[in-house]
Amino acid sequence: MSHPAFALFETAIGACAVIWSARGVLGVQLPEADARARVGRRFPGARESEPPEHVKRAIAAMTALLRGEAGGLDDVPLDLARVPDFNRKVYAIARSIPPGATLTYGEVAERLGDKSLARDVGQVLGENPIPLIIPCHRVLAAGGKAGGFSAPGGTITKLRLLTIEGAQPGGPTLFDHLPLEARR
After folding, report:
1. What is the model's pLDDT at position 25?
2. Is 136 one of the annotated active-site residues of the chain?
3. How far apart are CA 68 and CA 12, in angstroms?
4. What is the CATH number of the domain that holds 54?
5. Which of 136, 140, 151, 162 is an active site residue?
6. I need a labelling partner for 63 at 20 to 30 A (CA). Which of 17, 35, 162, 176 fits?
């Protein structure tokens, strides 16, 4: 496959898109007004296609995750060939954070070996081409504050994703006794 391919799929939060190459997933597009146009801008030449089996499994796992079910996204093959080495290291750490858990930008930087890289970590996560599979929404600012999020809806979307996953950024709330479905 010389050009990337993509498929749209419905989730609990709206229509998403996944973009892939022969090597693996290149991108995920979270819901926005015209996902096809956005995919075309991000991945010129991408063609809408029937996904191969490994991409179908990724779609099923992302759909389950967005319904609040544990998702198995750790083994989804990614195509990070055009991604700088530092970014790949940050993304690997983010990918190791399980649903319902979070790290701070500083903690990711510490795992990279230099706490002073926290701002760089935030910038790299803001460029994440594969949200959900690389769960950048699970990385928070110091003190459990949301920090930034580059997807449509910004930090509101980030906090909503964390709530769907059962995370408690900033600590316990008055609603924690409610079933997860009632907190959404």
Report:
1. 96
2. yes
3. 9
4. 3.30.160.70
5. 136
6. 176
Statement to judge: residues 57 and 121 lie in one domain? no
**Which two tokens mark 42?**
């991000």
Same domain, 89 and 161: yes
Nearest to 57 by CA among 24, 35, 30, 32: 24
Coil/strand/helix, residue 65: helix
What total of structural domains would you count in the chain? 2
**Residue 38: pLDDT band by 50, 70, 90 thresholds?**
confident
**Residue 39 and residue 46 in contact, taking contact as beta carbons nearer than 8 Å:** yes
Residue 138: C-alpha distances to residues 24, 84, 97, 120 (Å): 22, 21, 7, 16
Provide the residue type at 57 as one letter.
Answer: R
Q: What is the pLDDT of residues 114-161, one digit of tens each?
A: 999 999 999 999 999 999 999 999 999 887 777 777 776 777 878 888
